[in-house]
Design a protein that fits this description.
Blueprint: E1 2-6, H1 7-18, E2 32-38, E3 41-47, E4 51-58, E5 60-62, E6 65-70, H2 71-80, E7 85-90, E8 95-100, E9 103-108, E10 125-130, H3 131-139, E11 156-162, E12 165-171, E13 175-182, E14 188-194, H4 195-204, E15 210-215, E16 219-224, E17 227-232, E18 251-256, H5 257-267, E19 279-284, E20 287-293, E21 298-304, E22 306-309, E23 312-316, H6 318-327, E24 332-337, E25 344-348, E26 354-358
Antiparallel strand pairs: 1-5, 1-7, 2-3, 2-6, 3-4, 4-17, 7-8, 8-9, 10-15, 11-12, 11-14, 12-13, 13-26, 15-16, 16-17, 18-22, 18-24, 19-20, 19-23, 20-21, 24-25, 25-26
Length: 366
């Protein structure tokens, strides 16, 4: 077996599929990358039984076959070569020779016989989303997934699709993030995708072409360009998130996103893990006042804002609030309150393309 390919294309392909290579497994082959050689192309696959990534690149090939190469060795050897074109030769004993200019590496590969096949998914349930839109949806919701493995379904994100309305939802018990888009779709279905698969997908999106999404009861495939990401879906009952969205509010604040975030970041200088206390937030007339008093120092700040409705004093965790504000779109955001004990709602200046909820925290006297 022989093939010749461009170094840049091969390095990118190895980097992409390595994200799904298993670091600890009882199947040694899964610690490597499967390489399949066929006429005019080579296909690379990484798979850890939970998530798989497959891609292919153009190549000049002789014969066909497949083998498995240790992921780190494959990456290190390829990156170290100084030329632009790399030649591979593999004999029947799976001895691999890599040639580039005057440089040569030789090592033994593993057989692909024990490498598990990626699951096959029917294409009955398929829809498309612009890759840039999908990346934005992941960015604006993934921060709110749960880290608690005792309820695995909340460590992923809900895809709630009802005809042309697509909501991506994450919740961890203290905050909730919803990002909404309209897509070309018929039919309604819900499923939960692991956060890791979504973050890897986001990192692999390079352009604004459509991302094609295929699903069945247990798996999902994201097809973006020449990269295929397959992941198991998470089982379990997701939170009925629509019941958490406030139906009314008593106070609304329109505030500069940057000024509010800057204030929260200043607050973090006196409010760390060892010296943690709620932010004391008072909203009246045209001002948002923020106070914080810890064992390190005292912090006071005031931000001008457009305030309508009742005066309110409320406590919140500065990090949870900052995480939500940071991913909000727009120069200004709307923040709604329904008294000091109800959930805080963060919205865009117009519409409801995103809804971020943050639970309040009881205040102690200062």
């Amino acid at each position: 077996m022989k093939f010749i390919c461009q170094k840049s294309a091969l390095c990118e392909a190895i980097s992409n599929v390595s994200k799904a290579v298993s670091s600890k497994t009882t199947i040694p082959e899964l610690e490597g990358i499967k390489v399949r050689v066929s006429p005019g192309k080579i296909e690379l696959t990484g798979y850890n039984l939970e998530m798989g990534i497959r891609t292919e690149i153009n190549s000049v090939t002789e014969d066909s076959g497949e083998f498995v190469v240790a992921s780190k060795r494959f990456s290190d050897f390829t990156k170290s070569l100084s030329g632009n074109e790399i030649s591979f030769e593999i004999n029947e004993k799976l001895d691999v020779k890599i040639l580039c200019g005057s440089t040569e590496y030789g090592f033994t590969a593993m057989s692909a016989e024990n490498y598990p096949d990626l699951p096959i998914i029917d294409t009955e349930k398929t829809f498309n989303v612009k890759s840039s839109v999908l990346k934005s949806m992941i960015h604006q919701t993934s921060y709110a997934t749960s880290m608690n493995e005792s309820k695995p379904v909340l460590t992923g994100e809900l895809f709630d699709i009802e005809d042309e309305k697509f909501n991506m939802v994450a919740i961890d018990g203290f905050r909730l993030a919803i990002r909404s888009e309209f897509i070309d779709n018929t039919g309604s279905y819900q499923f939960v995708v692991p956060k890791k698969a979504l973050l890897e997908l986001s990192s692999l999106i390079r352009d604004d072409r459509d991302c094609i999404i295929h699903i069945n009861e247990k798996h999902i495939i994201f097809e973006t360009g020449n990269v295929f990401i397959i992941s198991r879906l998470l089982e379990g009952t997701f939170h009925k998130y629509k019941l958490s969205i406030p139906s009314e509010h008593k106070t609304e604040v329109i505030i500069s996103k940057r000024e509010f975030l800057n204030s929260l970041e200043r607050c973090s200088l006196v409010n760390d893990e060892k010296n943690k206390t709620p932010v004391h937030c008072e909203i009246r007339e045209d001002t948002v006042n923020i106070r914080c008093h810890t064992g390190i120092a005292k912090f006071n700040d005031a931000i001008q804002a457009d305030v309508t409705g009742e005066t309110v004093t409320i406590g919140f965790n500065h990090k949870l609030m900052a995480d939500a504000v940071r991913v909000a779109d727009g120069d200004k955001i709307r923040i709604r309150f329904n008294g000091s004990k109800k959930v805080i709602e963060i919205l865009p200046l117009e519409g409801k393309d995103f809804i971020f909820l943050v639970m309040p925290v009881n205040l102690r006297s200062y």
